[in-house]
Amino acid sequence: MTGSGSTSGATAPEPSPSGPRLGKANFALRGLIGGTITIAMLALVGQGIQQTLLIAPFGASCVLLFAAPESPFAQPRNLVGGHLLTASVGMAMLWIAGNGILSTGLAVGLVIALMEQTGTVHPPAGANPIVIMLAGKTSLAFLLAPILLGVAILLLLALAINNVGPRRWPLRWR
After folding, report:
1. What is the pLDDT of residues 135-171, one digit of tens each?
2. What are the structural domain ranges in the chain?
3. Which of 43, 46, 89, 143 is geometrically suited to a Cys-Cys bond with 53, CB 3.0 to 4.6 A?
4. pLDDT per position as a tens digit, 78-100
5. Prediction pTM value
6. Helices in 120-165 by DSSP H: which ranges?
7. CB hemisphere CA count around 170 (13 angstroms)
């Protein structure tokens, strides 16, 4: 018995040659299902309320939530806090300074620093200021849809999908 760290005297069974591949296939399938259902749900709810809920950062959030749910960046605090913070900063910067090159760069730099300081780093959310600058969205309604409603859908579906089978998500709420 080598490398197991156990002193019980029992030997571990030999791993199946297909074991690691099957595990990867299961996680890949979860990513396929999670990403498909989540993006489809965002599109369907958006159609139902006649609001666009599909923004590029949500696609990247799906990658973290379903392919790397153990990442600190994929935890609920980071998902929710990161998107709300970055959208707010993007809208404020657009309102204060317009959508120029410098203001867009400054908005992204600010959200990186603020997410770091608040413990809400969620890399996909770093794109929100760019989306907001390009779309010219300064309305607080933009925080409700797509940001808040979209993040709620992401969170609920990640909770449902990531807790099927042995994997558990989130690792932490705070």
Report:
1. 998 889 999 999 999 999 999 999 999 999 888 999 9
2. 19-162
3. 46
4. 999 999 999 999 999 999 999 99
5. 0.86
6. 128-135, 141-142, 149-162
7. 18
